[in-house]
Amino acid sequence: MKLAVLGAQWGDEGKGKVVDLLASRFDIVARYQGGHNAGHTVYLNGTKFVLRLIPSGILHHGLTCVIGNGVVVDPQALFAEVDELARNGIDVDGRLVVSDKAHLILPYHRDLDLLAEARRGERKIGTTSRGIGPAYEDKIARRGIRVGDLASPDALEQNVRDNVIARNRLVHDSTMDWKPVFEQLLHHARRLRPWVTDVSLMLHEEMRRGKSILFEGAQGTLLDIDHGTYPYVTSSNASVGGICTGLGVGPRSIDAVLGVVKAYTTRVGEGPLPTELSDERGSRLRESGNEYGAVTGRPRRCGWYDAVAARYGVRINGLDALALTKLDVLDGLDRIEICTAYRSGGRTLTEFPSDIAQLGTCEPVYESLPGWPTPTRGARRYADLPENARRYISRLEEVTGVPAAIVSTGSERDETIVREEKLQIAEFKLQT
Ligand code: IMP
């Protein structure tokens, strides 16, 4: 079985928990895009882990975790994460693999990220300031430095020198010295070396041996560089297409696609968000859902579930099923709204507009459902949910067009309802 698990909204859907929950059914978990802008939070026996680069599967002993060529790797961030895991008794050696084709984030990328945001002023994107965009810019401009380049110090020296000089020209008054950047890279190279491999080849060999793979997405479909709300997006393909390019596997390597959605909507950073609630209802969702960025601590913008956006996620990714997270955050609300369409320029839209200016004018059309006074928190069986919570889920399934195979009711691994019959509908052949 090869299953993709990816975000179908604006990121922060709870992918870390879903991947961690399913990981024990797989041999390999592979990340295909993004960098340490991601923050996958997983709670395990009361301990909170925030994984940024390393796939959430690392918390399962014996599982191999892969960082694909589509990921941009900041070696310092990677080592910090490895050290943090080691402090918690989790050893990555022999289980972590990094693609030799993955591009590196270097110190000047972080500076350029901050500079670009400052120059955009009011039109800033609200990036995570991790140097993600500038690292991908260098990749597309064919001047990036890849993990595999660390093995050839002479060529590396030349590339680092050229890149730092080019950057100094961009950043007014900057006189960054290329030598320390180069020396630090040589130092990183020694620690990275045992993990570096040809990931595409490795995955093909493992698949031939019948090994199962979970492809783990970061960010979300609406932050995808091509299909998201451009320019308010991240710089990689968070949607399903990123798997093939970001790991070097063919499309038939993906058996099924599971889209993770929150029971409401959040977004961090700038850009349109049609169902955003700027009143106390938004604050209520933020506080009950602890909606603060895992990486930057920024408060997330919150609003009702947007079925127009979710349906778009279904279309772009060919979703087979949903994993619906944070249902419990809606506990105790009197009424809950679902956005089923938009109104714009006197017209009703049922499809997500590709024109961002039009999206900015869209007013949500809501359907109102009764809430549930009894808590769903910690529920493990669908039948244990209050009737109104089940009605809410059924309606979400109808308006989104795919079944909710997993429902998460709390942050711990076992605070989850896995609806095996819905997994069957989606033709998942997960071995239990
Ligand atoms: P960047 O990826 O740091 O360039 O940021 C670009 C946009 O993507 C900003 O709006 C960020 O807030 C958003 N973003 C990046 N990573 C994540 C994530 O993991 N979750 C949610 N939003 C993200």
Task: Considering the chains and any ligands shown, give keywords for the structure.
four-stranded mixed sheet; 432 residues; binds inosinic acid; 13 helices; globular; alpha/beta; ten-stranded mixed sheet
What this model shows, in words?
This protein is of the alpha/beta class and 432 residues long. The protein is built from 13 helices and 20 strands. Helix 3 (107-120) crosses helix 4 and helix 5 crosses helix 6 (178-192). The longest helix has 18 residues, at 153-170. The radius of gyration is 22 Å and the shape is globular. It binds inosinic acid.
SSE map:
Blueprint: E1 2-7, H1 15-23, E2 28-31, E3 40-44, E4 47-51, E5 64-67, E6 72-73, H2 75-87, E7 96-99, E8 103-104, H3 107-120, H4 132-140, H5 153-170, H6 178-192, E9 196-197, H7 199-208, E10 213-216, H8 241-247, E11 256-262, E12 265-267, H9 280-288, E13 301-303, E14 305-306, H10 307-317, E15 321-325, E16 335-344, E17 347-349, H11 356-361, E18 363-370, H12 387-400, E19 404-408, E20 416-418, H13 420-425
Parallel strand pairs: 1-10, 1-11, 2-5, 2-10, 5-7, 6-8, 7-9, 11-15, 14-16, 15-19
Antiparallel strand pairs: 3-4, 12-13, 16-17, 16-18, 19-20
Helix pairs in contact: 3-4, 5-6
The structure holds inosinic acid.
Residues 11-12, 37-39, 125-128, 130, 132-133, 218-219, 223, 232, 234-235, 268-269 line the site of inosinic acid (IMP).
